[in-house]
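ok trying this again, last paste got cut off
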Amino acid sequence: MDSPLLNSDVQDFIANSLQANFPKIALMKNPFPEVKWNDILNQIASKNKAKEKLPTWFAHKYILYPSKISIEQTSSEITAKYKASLINGVTLIDLTGGFGVDDFYFAQKFNKVVHCEINEELSKIVRHNYQILEQRNIECYHGDSLEILKTLNQHWSWIYIDPSRRSDVKGKVFMLKDCLPNVPNLLETYFGFSDNILVKTAPILDITAGLSELKSVKTIHIIALDNEVKELLWEIEKDYSGPITLNAVAIAKDTTEVFSVIYGESEVKANYSLPKKYLYEPNAAMMKTGAFEAIGVHYNLEKLHQHSHLYTSDIEIDFPGRKFEIKAMHPFEKTEIKKHLEGKKMNVTIRNFPISVEEIRKKWKIKEGGNDYCFFTTNLNNEKIILLCEKI
């Protein structure tokens, strides 16, 4: 790619500016008049964003970056690696290529990957970066992905789609029909080119709403990184009509924990109990499944209340979420709060409780942080209680 940003002196300047004060650099006089100053500043800001999220890209000189927002929106390498572990085959076409992180990892599992991107400049950047990264089995096409799909006219092992929400759609309700491409409308067309489709959506998409729009869904992966749900992955198989598996995937620095459940298993009922010695809070991915009864059954734990989504046991178990030892339990009464909580420093969590954390902190002057954990919740007798805990 022919870009003045690839000048070695410019690249050295970008690399040497990463640790500097960005606002101060922005006020400098441009030392490279032949290059737009805003373009250089964008490279500095975007490369800084990539340091933790995209270490492979960050480590290479002469990598070009799109806008900082594009870097924020792209998959991290950690989630891209997990995606690539789910599927394999001979060929894959990505209809919404973006910055190409997912395709880089898909290329480790497929003989050939095609990256489609409607933004011409971004397509050129991605093609250039693949050359720098020496990833040679990815072909980049610029243009409308549906037209590219029809022009190439071949059967693919997998189609991958990461639809983006249209900017003209207002409101909080997130539906796939409001995204580009419109996957629900185009699903039959896509099945003409592949029997297997993997769709990535934002975590805000409600699972029940997604299933109302899509058919032939086989598995849904809820991907959480450091206990924050980052994306949903929908495995769709042509003509599939069996049970749908929900995989809650919790990825941390050195571990990946997966909790699996069949969607809509209504016959599963958890046992309920007053708080015992240990308290368990499911991770974010498990919470997104909505399978709160199944969690209790699977781990042989008892729930505190139908809507509290906290679990308890007398014996400590391994659990994919936060785990605590209950040190004390108090009724939600003013005298108890004044005696045990007021003015102290502790981490406050509410579950199925009518008052917000902010209100609780403000009313009783509870400072944030420390090693003590306090849960305001409701027990099976519909009593408001306070659990003072120590994290395990």
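PB: full thing came through this time. Residues 37-53 form the longest helix (17 residues).
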